[in-house]
């Protein structure tokens, strides 16, 4: 397929390169010259204008920072500019309301569109092992699947438009809560005189097991290797976790969902992000 890829940053850069590896032709556009130069070296054709990048393509993939930018890119450069038959895939993490709005505008103009946010960070984007949670019609999902499979290890149809974003923010709210809980328990065990490694060995095989403890242990030198062992560099940035928690709390409010722990996790990450937005989100253990 011929695919336009808009937004070639930390995540999009590797994703576009994986589309090229899967023998898709990729037209790349980004506001950053540096991102474009990298895309070119990875085999993409680069464009100075997004409206030109979408000419004659079979699909458009976007990986952009937020909902406002996604809306402006689709309204200004994709809808009405890409060929009618093109399938549109927004892989950014954005608010559910904007995802639904942009999908509705695309559908009204005759396009199939999915929201397809990802789980997995930069390493998964580079390695082609992302998990995609996809919102859209059966038809749009069917068309998007081939494109997504070239960039990920799992592609799951979550439901109608917006369902991908809903899955993503609910998952990440749970992750934030479980990370804080894991960090609290590990620090408390240590303060009570229990060797944290012993606590890890026991709890990771008991009812306390969870991804944050078992697969991403937040304490250096304990459990599995994780960003904690690299001074909390790399991994999933605290600033991005805070972004997702804000989206989650916004969505909770619109749905009248009760999320007391999600709200508290957001407050804790808000405080922590003031000086530590670039550190991995598991570094929140340092505040305990
Ligand atoms: P990033 O800031 O590295 O990349 C975003 C890119 O979009 C940049 O290269 C920027 O120049 C470009 N851009 C901004 N406005 C644009 C416009 N109007 N037109 C064209 N290009 C434009 O961000 P990222 O880390 O790649 O994240 C992208 C999305 O993926 C976000 O929604 C983020 O929440 C989500 N996400 C990130 C991670 C992660 O670990 N980094 C993990 C999961 C999901």
Give an overview of the whole structure:
With 288 residues, this protein is of the alpha/beta class. It is built from 12 helices and 9 strands. The chain has a 6-stranded parallel sheet, with helices on both faces. The chain has a 3-stranded mixed sheet with strand order 7-8-9. Helix 4 runs parallel beside helix 5, helix 8 packs across helix 12 and helix 11 packs antiparallel against helix 12. It is globular. The structure holds nicotinamide-adenine-dinucleotide (NAD). Nicotinamide-adenine-dinucleotide binds next to helix 4 and helix 11. This is 3-hydroxyisobutyrate dehydrogenase.
Overall body shape: globular
Taking the sheet with the most strands, its summary is: 6 strands, parallel
Mean pLDDT comes to 97
| CATH superfamily membership of the largest domain | NAD(P)-binding Rossmann-like Domain
Content-based structural category: alpha/beta
Helix count, DSSP H or I runs of 4 or more residues: 12
Portion in strands: 5-15%
- How many strand elements? 9
Binned, the helix content reads 40-55%
- Could you name the ranges where pLDDT drops below 50 across 5 or more consecutive residues? none
Cofactors and ligands present? nicotinamide-adenine-dinucleotide
Question: Which key terms come to mind for this protein?
Answer:
alpha/beta, N-(1-d-carboxylethyl)-l-norvaline Dehydrogenase, domain 2, six-stranded parallel beta sheet, 14% strand, binds nicotinamide-adenine-dinucleotide
